[in-house]
Every structure is written in C-alpha cells, then in structure tokens.
UniProtKB/TrEMBL annotation:
One of its GO terms (biological process) is defense response to virus. The lineage of its organism: Bacteria, Pseudomonadati, Planctomycetota, Planctomycetia, Pirellulales. It comes from Lacipirellula parvula. This is CRISPR-associated negative autoregulator Cas7/Cst2. CRISPR (clustered regularly interspaced short palindromic repeat) is an adaptive immune system that provides protection against mobile genetic elements (viruses, transposable elements and conjugative plasmids). CRISPR clusters contain spacers, sequences complementary to antecedent mobile elements, and target invading nucleic acids. CRISPR clusters are transcribed and processed into CRISPR RNA (crRNA). Signal peptide: none annotated.
Length: 302
C-alpha cells in the first residue's frame, strides 16, 4: 500500500486585502467565491504554491527562482531535460509541484508537443473561515506616488480597498512514492509549516500564512477525509473541528494517523481531539513529528 500525507492548515487571524485579485475602477478587489451559500474571500492555490517554492529553496536548489528586480523567473533547466533519464538532475520544486512545457507545431499540419509532469503535491484553494461582510477602506495616494496619481498633478488620488479580517484554511495531498526523491516529502511538509507571506495587500502588507492550527494525516488511505474540516462559531476567535471529530467517531479516520499542531494547547479544539487519541503538540513540534513519521515510513534517515 502507498503512503499518503494529507494536511489541513488554518492561519492566524489577520487582515487580508487584494490577494492578487483584479482592480475594478479605483477599487482593489478581493478574490471571492460562494461557500455554503455565503460570500467568502479566497486565496488561490497558485499564490500558496508561489510562496512554497520560495521556502523549498531553503532546503534544496529550485529550478525556478523569482528575480525581484526583473520580476521574472530565473531558470536552471527551462527545458526540464533532467527528467529525460532516470539519473538526470531534477529539482525539488519540479518534483513536488510538477511542470508543463508545451510547444506549438512548427508547420501547419504537424502536431505540437508537451513535456508534462503532474504535481505530486496538490494544494487546495484557501477559503476564509468567516463570510466577507463587505468591508472597504478608503484611502488617498499622495500626489505623484503612483502612475495614476502622477496624472492627477498635485492632487491626491482617492481609492478604495476591499479588506477581510479573518482566518483562512486550505489543504494538501501528497503521495511520496510518486516523487523522484522521496526525501522531498518531509521537506515539503517542513516548508508548508513555515510559510510566510501569501495573502496581503500588493505584497506590501503582511498577512501571516504560517499555520496557527494544523492537522496532518499520514496513512495508507488514499482519500484525505479532513479537508476544510475546521469551523468557527465566534467569528474566528476560536476554532472547532466538529466535522473531523465526527469522522473519527464514525471510524472513517483512525485517530492514530492524525497529528494536531495548535498554538493554544488549552483550547476546546485540542481537548476534543486529544480525548479521541489524537497526538497533540505545538505547531512546530507537530510538524517535526510528521516529518519524523514520514521519513520513518519511507526508511529515510532524517
């Protein structure tokens, strides 16, 4: 049986704005979706993957590295040639996150070609735990502060920003046996547990995307069964995992497969899962426990 690693992350409470969405008129908008019939803000999996790729670079060299000056990717192997043979040099970001290089046909009537590797580490879209109530802040750019402000001469330029004070939750799925280098599974979990900025406001203002709570599942079961399992009944002040508890009580999930990491070890959430036999730690210690279990299962020396 294959080993599977699943996790569901919840961020601390913070204020998010923009999240790489579009601008409509002079309003910078949030990405939004309907979630259980209400409007929630959301952060794309691509934004999470972008931040993860940066973190992975602290573990191994990556194929793509973002050039902050030129605002482009600097590539080590843009043709992904290392994947053509079993002993070719591969990079951790391509191994985990996959790639696709498509070439159009050079002449009419010929077929194009594509070099594709499916992502082994799959990431869900992050969804706010609380509905978006429509908060908008109104601001004024200083004269000359932006290209649009420069067009207004000596006058400040008013603009609005949709904001959301909330937490986000998202999940991942990973099957280490599908990796070229299995030791990269534990490195991915470590990077996810130490994510920095993902959501914010044009990348200038901070929203902490490191987990405030995380539940990891290391199992032979191919289905996650724990994605989006956190909820709140007090506008994000505290969390519950009633959906996960029901899964445990119904024996859909073996609690011994779970590791909970929480910033507040005195919370009701911790008590309810601990009473059902789930291993509970602080967030960083929980991630270390997951890394140790993964490496032990894969017989990799940490």
């Amino acid at each position: 049986m294959s080993l599977h690693v699943f996790a569901n992350f919840v961020t601390p409470f913070g204020t998010a704005a923009n999240n790489r969405a579009e601008t409509e008129g002079n309003i910078t908008t949030l990405q939004k979706l309907l979630w259980l019939g209400e409007t929630h803000s959301t952060v794309s999996a691509e934004a999470i993957r972008f931040a993860l790729r940066r973190r992975l670079a602290s573990a191994e060299s990556t194929n793509r590295e973002w050039d902050e000056i030129e605002c482009v990717n600097a590539w080590e192997d843009p043709e992904f040639k290392g994947w053509s043979g079993d002993k070719g040099k591969t990079f951790i970001d391509d191994d985990l996150l996959g790639f696709m290089k498509a070439d159009a046909a050079k002449e009419e009537g010929e077929s194009g070609s594509a070099n594709i590797r499916r992502a082994v580490l799959e990431v869900t879209r992050a969804v706010s735990l609380t509905p978006w109530s429509g908060d908008v802040t109104f601001n004024a750019a200083s004269p000359g502060a932006t290209p649009s402000a420069q067009k207004k001469g000596r006058n400040p330029v008013p603009y609005g920003t949709e904001v959301h004070a909330t937490r986000y939750q998202y999940g991942i799925a990973l099957t280490p046996e599908r990796l070229r280098d299995k030791s990269r599974a534990a490195k991915a979990i470590d990077a996810l547990c130490n994510l920095g900025t993902v959501a914010g406001n044009h990348g200038r203002f901070l929203f902490d995307f490191s987990p405030d709570v995380v539940v990891l599942r290391i199992t032979s079961d191919p289905a996650p069964r724990l994605l989006y399992s956190f909820d709140t009944t007090d506008n994000g002040k505290t969390l519950n995992a009633d959906a996960l508890v029901k899964r445990i009580d119904s024996k859909d999930i073996n609690p011994k497969e779970l590791i909970l990491g929480a910033g507040d070890l005195d919370s009701k959430l911790v008590a309810s899962l601990k009473a059902r036999g789930v291993a509970v730690f602080g967030v960083k210690r929980a991630c270390e426990e997951a890394v140790n279990r993964i490496n032990a299962e894969l017989k990799i020396k940490g």
